[in-house]
Structures are given as C-alpha cells and as structure tokens.
Amino acid sequence: MARLPSTAANFHLAIVLCLLHHLINDYLLADAAIVEHTFHVGNLSVQRLGQSQVITAVNGQFPGPKIEARDGDTVVVHVVNLSPYNLSIHWHGILQRLSCWADGPNMVSQCPIRPAAGTYTYRFNVTGQEGTLWWHAHVSFLRATVYGALILHPAAPSSYPFPTPHGEATILLGEWWNVSVVDVERQALLMGAGPNNSVALTINGLIGAGGGGGSENSSSSSSSQYELAVQRGRTYLLRIINAALNYELFFKVANHSFTVVAADACYTDPYHTDVIVIAPGQTVDALMRADADPGRRYYMAAQVYQSLANATYSAATTALLTYLPDASGSDDEQPTLMPTMPAFNDSATAQSFYASLTGLLQDGVPLHVDTRMLVTFGLGATPCASAQTLCNRTLGSVAASMNNVSFQLPTTMSLLEAHMRGAPDGVYTRDFPDRPPVMFDFTGDAMAANRSFMLTSKGTKVKTLRYNETVEVVLQNTAVLGAENHPLHLHGFNFFVLAQGPGNFNAHRHVRKYNLVNPQQRNTVAVPGGGWAVIRFTADNPGVWIMHCHLDAHLPFGLAMAFEVEDGPTPDAVLPPPPPDYPRC
Ligand SMILES: *[C@@H]1O[C@H](CO)[C@@H](O)[C@H](O)[C@H]1NC(C)=O
Ligand SMILES: *[C@@H]1O[C@H](CO)[C@@H](O)[C@H](O)[C@H]1NC(C)=O
Ligand SMILES: *[C@@H]1O[C@H](CO)[C@@H](O)[C@H](O)[C@H]1NC(C)=O
Ligand SMILES: *[C@@H]1O[C@H](CO)[C@@H](O)[C@H](O)[C@H]1NC(C)=O
Ligand SMILES: *[C@@H]1O[C@H](CO)[C@@H](O)[C@H](O)[C@H]1NC(C)=O
Ligand SMILES: *[C@@H]1O[C@H](CO)[C@@H](O)[C@H](O)[C@H]1NC(C)=O
Ligand SMILES: *[C@@H]1O[C@H](CO)[C@@H](O)[C@H](O)[C@H]1NC(C)=O
Ligand SMILES: *[C@@H]1O[C@H](CO)[C@@H](O)[C@H](O)[C@H]1NC(C)=O
Ligand SMILES: *[C@@H]1O[C@H](CO)[C@@H](O)[C@H](O)[C@H]1NC(C)=O
Ligand SMILES: *[C@@H]1O[C@H](CO)[C@@H](O)[C@H](O)[C@H]1NC(C)=O
Ligand SMILES: *[C@@H]1O[C@H](CO)[C@@H](O)[C@H](O)[C@H]1NC(C)=O
Ligand SMILES: *[C@@H]1O[C@H](CO)[C@@H](O)[C@H](O)[C@H]1NC(C)=O
Ligand SMILES: [Cu+2]
User: Fold this and answer.
1) How many CB atoms lie within 10 A of CB 86?
2) How far apart are CA 16 and CA 7, in angstroms?
3) How many domains does one find in the chain?
4) The ligand 7 atom nearest the CA atom of 448
5) What domain of life (predicted)?
C-alpha cells in the first residue's frame, strides 16, 4: 500500500473526521428518514346512511392512511391506480421546493395516472415545515373520498412553540354524497350549473347525529360516529382539516374552548376561541383542555358556514367527546351536551376568526415588492357549449374567472411539462393580466343583478415570475352572480396575509392597514364574500404553480390561474428534470 506523505495523510484524516462528524450530527440531530407508503387506489364499498355505496379510496380505508413525517424527512409514495378514473394526488401545503413534479394537480404539474394499474411515485422532501397538512386527489371530484392527513412533526421531539400536549387527535371534516361524485360533477358540467349538494357532513369519514336527515339520534350512542376519549386535566392538540368539497365549516365542542396555535402548518400566536372557522383546504391546530365535568358526554359538531347571500342550504354533523375511564360505557341517563352553533350564515363570526389570526414568525415579511397584481375573481357565464346538452341556453353556462380569464386546463400536455420543454405554444400563453381589463364597482349591491359584467371567456394563461421576485396580490372578490367567500389556495408557497376587508380594495385607505410585523402565513386564504385580501410571497421555487378556489364546485368552472416561476441563477435554484416514471399524456 502506497504511503501518503504525512501532510496528505493528516488532510485525509481530517476529511474522514469531518465526514464522521457530519454523519454523527446527521444521526443525532437531523436523523432524516425516508417515509415510504404505497397507495393502492380503487373501489371500496362502504355503508353510510343505511345504504351501501361504492367510493374511490386508498388502501381500502376511508379516510385514507395518515402520513406522518418529521421536518427533514423524505416522503416517498408509490401510487397504483386501480380505480376506473384518471387520478393524481396533491400534497396540500407541502412547499415542494425543487420538486414541482410531485405537486399533483391534474394537467398542471402532471398528466393523470391512468386507470388499469397506472403508477407514479411521488417523492418530496419536508423542509422547514411543521404542523398539520393533508393529501387529496386533485382531479375531478375524487377528493371527496380520496384524502387523508399529512402530519409534520418537529425534527426534535415535542419542540413545539407551546406546551407539549398530552395527546393529539386528527379531525378530518368532509362531505358525503349518496351517488357517485363523478356523476355529480359530470351532471354539473352538462348543465353548466352548480353541482348537487352533498347529503351529509362527515367527521373522520363518519356521519353522526345531525347529519343525513337525522339517521342517528342524539340520545343513543351511535357506533357509527367518531369518538374521542380524553382524560380530565389533560390538554389535547386537535389537528382539524377541512376536506369538504364545497363548504366552509364552523366547528365547536360543547363546554370546551380552544387555543389556536397553527393554521395551514404555520404557527400562529395563541388565539383563544370557542369556535373554529375553517375553509376547504385549510387546517387549524388547536389545543383543547379537557376541563369539563367528566361525568358527562359532549358533542363536537361541524356545521356549514354559508357565505352566499340568500342561500338556504345548511347541514351539520357530530362526533363524541367522552371522558376516561368511563368513556362511552357510562350510563346514558344524561343527554349528551350539544354546542350552540353560530347561525349558518354568521359571516361576522367567520370573518372575525379569519382576520384575528397572527403569525408566530420565523422569518420576516418581504418589505420590497417587485410585482404588484390586482386579481378580481368570482362567478360569471359563457355561452353554452354544444356538448352541454342540459345547459340553459338563456342563462348560459356558469363560468368562473380571475381577471376575466376562465381558466381552462390543457389537454395534450401538463403546464409543467410544456414549461420544462420551453415550448408553451399550444399549451399555455404568458399573458395573464396583472389587472382586471375593466375597472368597475366590483362588490356593489347592484352587481348581483347586473348582467353586463357576467360574460367571460376561457383561456390557459399564466403569470411568469422571475426567480426570487416578491409578489403582492390583491385578491378582490366580485359580487357578479352573488358575493361569496372563496378560499384561494396557492400551490408551492406559503404566503403572508397582510390585510383583508369588505368592499372594494382601495390602496389609498387600505395599504396603511397592512400587518407587516406578524401577519398570518397560510396556503389557503378565505377571501371575504364581496371583499378582498392581500397576500405577499417570494417566488423562490421554480415550476408551475396553480392558484385556485378550493371549492370543487368552482374549480372546473375556471376559478384558477397559474404562476410560472423561472429557474434561478445557481444550481440550487434550478428545477431538476422529471423523474423517469413521470406520467405523460
Ligand atoms: C368500480 O366502481 C365503479 C362504479 O360503481 C364501477 O363502474 C366499476 O366497474 C368498478 N370497478 C371495479 C374494478 O370493481
Ligand atoms: C431531498 O433530500 C435528499 C436527502 O437529503 C437530497 O439528496 C435531495 O437532493 C433532496 N431533493 C430535493 C429536490 O431537494
Ligand atoms: C340520497 O339522499 C337523498 C336525501 O336523503 C334522498 O332524497 C335520495 O333519494 C338519496 N339517493 C339515493 C340514490 O339513495
Ligand atoms: C341532483 O339532484 C337532482 C334533483 O334532486 C336529481 O334529479 C339528480 O339525479 C341529482 N344528480 C345526481 C348526479 O345525483
Ligand atoms: C333514538 O335511539 C333510541 C335507541 O336506539 C331509540 O329507542 C329511539 O326511538 C330513537 N329516537 C328517535 C327519535 O329516533
Ligand atoms: C355546558 O355549557 C352550558 C352552556 O354554557 C352550561 O349551561 C352548562 O352548565 C355546561 N354544562 C357542564 C356540564 O359544564
Ligand atoms: C336577497 O334577497 C332579497 C329579498 O328577496 C333581495 O332584495 C336581495 O337582492 C337578495 N340578495 C342577493 C345578493 O341576491
Ligand atoms: C341568515 O338567515 C336567516 C334565515 O334564513 C335570515 O333571516 C337572516 O337575515 C340571515 N342573516 C344574514 C346576516 O344574512
Ligand atoms: C332558463 O333560465 C331562464 C332564466 O332564469 C328561466 O326563465 C327558464 O325557465 C330556464 N329554462 C329552463 C329549461 O330551465
Ligand atoms: C370579459 O371578457 C368578455 C369576453 O371577452 C367580454 O365580453 C367582457 O366585456 C369582459 N368583461 C370584463 C368585466 O372585463
Ligand atoms: C433573493 O432576494 C433576496 C432579497 O429580496 C436576496 O437577499 C437573496 O440573496 C436573493 N436570493 C437569490 C438566490 O437570488
Ligand atoms: C384521462 O387522461 C387522458 C390523458 O390525459 C385523457 O386523454 C382522457 O381523456 C382522460 N379521461 C377522462 C375520462 O377524463
Ligand atoms: Cu370559489
């Protein structure tokens, strides 16, 4: 064996020690793991509301499997599509830094995983994120039943910015149809009108009292409702996720209150409340102290919050909160206590909750803004297409738009693939406008009855951003066809919510209301019906990222747009090539 000169030998020794040091550090501190799952997606027959229903589900479970990872881990999910439908899965709220290929929205970041055992492996790193997120199908209405929790634990055990809770529970809120959701969507598109409402709400996949026309009653302990058993004096972290397709929800637990500590996996300043308000796509982490009479049983209840003026649809469901050791075995003499819910149209309570959260900041708000946009959005109409056989020719087909562009998915290639090829021609155009083409009284009372601003047209337009640009977007709801709260979800980024309010945004009056100190950070903002919200983010993640209404009733109508973020100047700012099994059309 050749002898090394001593300096070189020392040098090598130093490298070895250094590597060892890194390995030990990695092991002790980061201990990054690979969290690997296989999702077999296919038909599942379940019983709900006294009837058998075939749904699309993952691994024969509804809700689907919970994924738990720690900050720093790599998540690998092998998806096998055994369902009869095109499929893709989105990891809602995961930043997907340099892994846009794994984001999941159908025809935006990928073509669908085809039926008859098509496969795709989603692979992404969890970097700098802690809290509650979730995953769901991002094609058609399949997310009605294809969803589950995605829990990101801190890298170091229990290093929360609040006292470590004694236990935790995931509360997935959803909606239930007693027909195929694919048929519900198909019918809505043929009619050019809103889809049928669900027939019940669910908590962790189960329908309790108050749901589905009262099939269960409140004095019996129904085995079909979710039950959480707690111990008196202990504090629990409730990870609440709104997986409902189309409705924002109020959530309460009788005789218990909450301290909100995070929203959309971003820590918040502690916020005390007895009601949680949560829009589709959003999550809320709330501490709940079990400090009520342990001899009683309590309902937790979810109820529709309806922001649309004059709407009448409302629904509710319950789950049980019981105290150990007796829990559900206890005598049923005393009725289970029901929380007093807000009125289904209590926008004051909803808006108060949404606007009261502030962020527990790890990094500051960008103060310099490179690009400012004013984006109006809401419902409108396009002339019925010939294929829309059930469409009302007088009214036209309901459409939704942003800056008067009704977003249309491409059909031949995903936006991301076209972006990577540098050949958007025929797939998308780069002319999404920074401002609405016409300024008008967006939220005026007369707007709901004024048809002159209703007409919109379809297009696949993106807004192109330079790497690392800071972007501020004024999200301005319109009252055309009715003012309604739309939860807008941005993929690939968390954004700061600087301000929100009713009416038309007015820079002169509202810029001074910006919270640049501790604004909440979110991935989904519930923009007030007939109002506005201002968001700001740094475009430091190359790829194509959709921003859309998280009401599935509005997404196929076109309430969406996409940001195309260019690569940066350094290798760590360049989107790597797609994985070998990337689905193409
Ligand atoms: C799955 O369910 C759908 C809808 O009920 C049905 O059309 C299809 O044949 C089923 N597929 C399989 C493989 O069972
Ligand atoms: C994810 O983490 C792994 C392991 O640290 C690393 O090798 C890989 O480059 C990361 N991927 C991306 C897209 O950053
Ligand atoms: C679904 O539920 C609704 C409301 O309870 C009921 O009117 C309808 O008949 C049910 N449809 C099916 C197919 O069971
Ligand atoms: C939607 O509701 C209407 C009216 O109740 C009913 O006729 C129709 O069959 C429903 N559509 C689906 C897909 O269930
Ligand atoms: C409630 O459930 C109990 C026990 O199953 C039953 O005896 C009672 O008739 C039910 N009441 C109603 C109103 O359905
Ligand atoms: C529960 O709350 C209600 C309404 O605030 C109150 O009247 C009742 O006494 C409470 N019950 C218990 C067991 O704490
Ligand atoms: C709500 O109903 C009232 C009374 O019918 C009507 O005056 C008002 O214009 C309606 N509002 C909307 C936004 O449709
Ligand atoms: C809420 O609905 C009720 C009954 O439908 C109605 O009387 C009331 O005016 C509505 N409140 C608001 C704030 O729209
Ligand atoms: C179409 O809409 C118009 C205007 O609201 C209404 O008068 C008409 O009855 C509708 N036609 C059908 C077939 O529903
Ligand atoms: C929106 O676009 C349509 C179709 O191009 C046009 O007729 C309409 O005037 C535009 N409306 C607004 C408010 O810009
Ligand atoms: C991104 O922009 C910030 C200031 O806005 C700057 O400090 C940073 O160096 C930039 N990063 C890159 C990689 O360009
Ligand atoms: C499924 O995806 C393929 C490839 O994009 C497409 O050609 C086909 O029309 C889709 N099928 C349905 C039912 O949407
Ligand atoms: Cu919407």
Assistant:
1) 19
2) 14
3) 3
4) 13
5) Eukaryota
